[in-house]
Amino acid sequence: FIGSMRVQALALAAETGGTVDIVLLMPPKDAQSMGPRHKDWLRRYDVRVVEIPWVIPPKLKWWPKGWWPGKGDGWCGPQDLMRLHVLGLEEYDAVAFYDQDVEFQGDAGVVLKCAATGRFLSASGGVGEPLNVGFFAARPDRRLLLASEIFAENVSFSEKTGWARSSFAPAGGYFVGAECGQGYLHTLFYQKKSKKAQQALDAAGLLDAAGNFKVEAVQLDRCIWNYQTGHECPARFDCE
Length: 240
What we know:
This protein is of the alpha/beta class. It has 2 domains: about 1-50, no CATH class; about 55-225, no CATH class. It is built from 9 helices and 8 strands. About 30% of the residues are buried.
């Protein structure tokens, strides 16, 4: 997908007269272990590597039974939550995170231009999850990253009640990835009735005097912007 991503970046840069980077987030130990082949690949596609200080928020002490920090499998938390660092890249007017298995169709630059207005954009997924963490976009604000770190303190997850007992709404119950980034992000940015989430946003300076989230968190039509399966998409939907 990196080739099509570079095409998108060049097109948006030409349209706006700005700089559009492809950024790869990596823990320092992984960045240091890259060999000549990896580095050549990154140079070929002009990819910027950003080393990140954590893969799960430092204050997060909940994880599923049988998993522990440093274990390579058994929980999707690290691979999901590390992408939150995208939200702190304030040198950019807008950022969009995409999983490594995407295929671009049409003009993806529209998403970045919309995010630059100050909105947090996401989409649901193809198997019933209200937020699919394989894609999101925003205008970077370190307070968003800070809120995700604050939310982690003394928080836990239950398959019956979700993160911080905040439920799974609008899903009727547990959904795939709820115990990982998909549930974590959805609770923090969309669950307005979550006391724990509201406290984290407030502590990060993201609530106004009336208690409203200063960032407009909205969702896009996944059939267009995050197509995965035809589930709940129009009949004979053309994903191209």
